[in-house]
Every structure is written in C-alpha cells, then in structure tokens.
Specification:
Blueprint: E1 2-3, E2 6-11, E3 14-19, E4 22-28, E5 34-42, H1 55-58, E6 62-71, E7 74-77, E8 81-82, E9 89-94, E10 97-100, E11 104-107, H2 117-123, E12 130-132, E13 135-137
Antiparallel strand pairs: 1-2, 2-10, 3-4, 3-9, 5-6, 6-7, 6-8, 7-11, 12-13
Length: about 150
C-alpha cells in the first residue's frame, strides 16, 4: 500500500516526527517489534584522540536524530538527520495505522550458544571467576560455548 507515493505498512504504534515544520518520517515497526527514536549529540576531547582516528573525524561535533526498528529478523533504519541549535523537533506518538517503510532494512543474524547447563553452572560458580581490577568477574565464553584459553 502507498501513502503520498511512499510504500507503507500497518503498525501498532507510530512516531510522527516533524523537524522545522517538515515531516521527517512516520515511523512504525509493524504489528510487533521495537521502535526507537534517539537524539544524539557528540563532541569529543581532542586530547583523547586515538592514534588511528583522524583529527577531522574525531573532533567533529555532531547532533543527529535517528529512528530505527526491529521487526522479526530485520533491523530497520530511517536516514539519520543532522540537527543544529534552534531546530524544532516534534514527535507525536500515534496509535495503530499506516506508517512509512524505512529506506534501510537488513537481516539480523543471531548466534545462539548452547551449553550443557551443569557445565555452565560450574563455570559461573563464584570460585571460577576471573580477577579483573581486584574484583571477581564471571568467565567469558566464545561463540562455541567454550572458555577462551
């Protein structure tokens, strides 16, 4: 289905997001899933720049609006929007209805680690922990469910 020439879907909850009077998107995640919206400001200390990062990229100040969703096995995202001081962002939370499909959608591959529960319990016992900075921390496991050597 389409709305104003854009593909849409039915969503249980929607974020109607308007920036400076112009609709950014009408986001939804379908009948089930996760719908998230965040506004992130980043300004890093130039003195703490790692050697492998360029000064131009590290020292760049940015403020971005991001909206994303998780639906079944898919991670979805609307194009991040750079915002600046003085911009007005309006977010209306709407109930069920049609929402825009995101421009970016990628399949999420999940890794499931299976452990014998008795083996896992033994590994998580307090005396099996590793000492890190003077405190005990539980053991770590790799993707095969075994402890790294």
């Amino acid at each position: 289905m389409t709305r104003n020439g854009k593909a849409t879907r039915r969503s249980a909850l929607r974020f109607d997001t308007v920036v400076n009077g112009t609709r950014y998107c009408l986001a939804g995640s379908g009948r089930y899933g996760v719908l998230a919206l965040n506004l992130v400001w980043i300004k890093r200390d130039p003195k703490k720049r790692p050697p492998l990062k360029t000064a131009e990229r590290w020292c760049r100040e940015e403020c971005r609006l991001r909206i994303g969703a998780m639906t079944g096995d898919y991670q979805e995202a609307w194009e991040p929007l750079t915002v600046k001081e003085g911009d007005e962002i309006t977010i209306r939370v709407l109930g069920p209805g049609r929402s825009d499909l995101p421009p970016s959608r990628s399949r999420v591959v999940s890794a499931t680690v299976k452990l014998d529960t008795s083996e896992a319990a033994a590994r998580c016992a307090p005396d099996a922990g590793n000492k890190v900075n003077g405190s005990k921390r539980g053991p770590s496991f790799n993707s095969k469910g075994t402890r790294p050597k």
